[in-house]
Specification:
The chain is mostly helical. It is built from 22 helices and no strands. It has one domain (41-425).
Length: 426
């Protein structure tokens, strides 16, 4: 099987270097390696591709994407940002702080870093530019804060991880709350020091009455994550049903309450959702075939043997994080998640590592990869929104990456930051 594994990796690297779409690189390398080195029926590859996306739990992915798109057209993003700005407007670098807080709130609706960057980013970057912030700094804060999206519940990557690892989606969602808040606090601390150093502006302090008005305006959108978490915790609905409930809730807010969502918007919303879902699920399906080949090549057994020779679980976790950080610089996070999870989860179980903690740690690592040069997808998304070359966004994001890594190290060393809240709540 060594020949199969070598061919699999070689074909994938060559196709990726040629600029082939990631899903095609994953799927074709799996097909070619099996066809040329084994007598495995090629129908098995087709079955694995189909099974990669054929899951009741995976239905939550397009539904959360649809909910985020509806929220964007419903005027929810403006209300969230205005409320965040009212809360922290008196601080130095006020709009940077508001950017982070808005990302925490919007994370409770979309579960996607890319959705956060695209939806809130347009409002946030324009507002910061209007107050004199450098565009690259505005883009960098937006990209860095968008990493909170898949950590704070709900989370599309955690749904995908749960479907592969067999972990509890509810516990993963709850486990992401403390790490998500930690990232928010860490980014706000960094923004404070940078803003003081560069004399970035602040807003006039809002009165309690003005803050109350902004809170009233954003109260119903703020209830979206509460509905999701309470529904899952109390067993009112499954994660997939929760996603469907939020779609209906978002439509009611936009169409009947705020009246900014029009029926004429729906075709465009559905097209955007289908395009994003198609890309995501194509990658998931192809990566499932890729991971199948890794499994039959017994890569998991090799990793288990290597892990057994390590001094303890901490050494294994450090090695996994270094591997994921390197992969995250060059590959799309969903593909990494689908390929690596079935290989690493059995090893983690053998070492007694909690799967909820392991999943949150992996997702956080992959989100750092989203904003890490040279190929972090978040960098390209935000650069497009900000209408600047990606090189300028890279320059702006560099001070934020060490802060995100510090939070990652805290999660590795202190598993209780993830496991404590689920054990209490659920």
């Amino acid at each position: 099987m060594e020949g199969t594994l070598f061919l699999l990796i070689a074909v994938f690297v060559i196709l990726s270097a040629m600029g082939m779409p990631l899903a095609i690189s994953l799927g074709f390398s799996a097909l070619a390696s099996l066809f040329l080195t084994t007598d495995t029926l090629l129908t098995v590859v087709a079955q694995k591709v189909q099974l990669g996306a054929d899951s009741y739990l995976m239905m939550a992915v397009p539904l959360f994407i649809l909910a985020a798109s509806i929220m964007n057209y419903a005027g929810v993003t403006d209300r969230i940002f205005n409320f965040a700005r009212a809360l922290v407007g008196f601080l130095p670098g006020a709009l940077g702080h508001a950017n982070v807080i808005a990302s925490v709130v919007f994370a409770g609706m979309s579960g996607s870093a890319i959705a956060d960057s695209a939806s809130l980013g347009n409002i946030e970057i324009k507002s910061m530019e209007a107050q004199g912030y450098p565009t690259e700094y505005s883009a960098a804060v937006t990209a860095a804060s968008a990493t909170i999206g898949p950590i704070f519940p709900p989370s599309i990557p955690m749904v995908i991880y749960a479907g592969i690892a067999g972990a509890s989606v509810g516990q993963l969602f709850i486990g992401g709350i403390v790490p998500g808040l930690l990232i928010g606090v860490a980014l706000m601390i960094l923004n404070h020091f940078i803003s003081v150093k560069n004399h970035y502006p602040r807003d006039e302090k809002k009165s309690a009455r003005e803050i109350a008005v902004c809170f009233k305006d954003s109260f119903l959108p703020l209830m979206a994550p509460v509905i999701i978490l309470c529904g899952i915790i109390f067993g009112w609905f499954t994660p997939t049903e929760a996603a469907a409930v939020i779609v209906v809730y978002a439509f009611i807010l936009g169409f009947f309450v705020f009246r900014e969502l029009k029926l004429a918007h729906m075709p465009k919303i559905f097209m955007e959702t289908m395009a994003t879902t198609g890309i995501t699920m194509f990658i998931v399906a192809a990566a499932n075939a890729f991971s199948y080949v890794l499994t039959i090549c017994r890569l998991g057994n090799l990793l288990t043997d290597i892990a057994a020779a390590m001094p303890g679980p901490l050494s294994f976790l450090v090695a996994v994080n270094l591997l994921l950080l390197m992969l995250g610089m060059f590959m799309e996070s969903t593909a990494i998640l689908v390929v690596i999870t079935p290989v690493l989860v059995p090893v983690a179980q053998a070492m007694g590592i909690d799967l909820v903690y392991f999943g949150v740690m992996i997702v956080l690592n992959l989100m750092i990869g989203l904003v890490t040069p040279p190929f972090g997808m978040g960098l390209f998304t935000v650069s497009q929104v900000a209408k600047i070359p990606v090189e300028r966004t890279v320059k702006g994001i560099l001070p934020f990456i060490p802060v995100l890594l510090i939070v990652q190290v805290m999660i590795i060393l202190l598993p209780g930051l993830v496991t404590w809240l689920p054990s209490v709540v659920m």
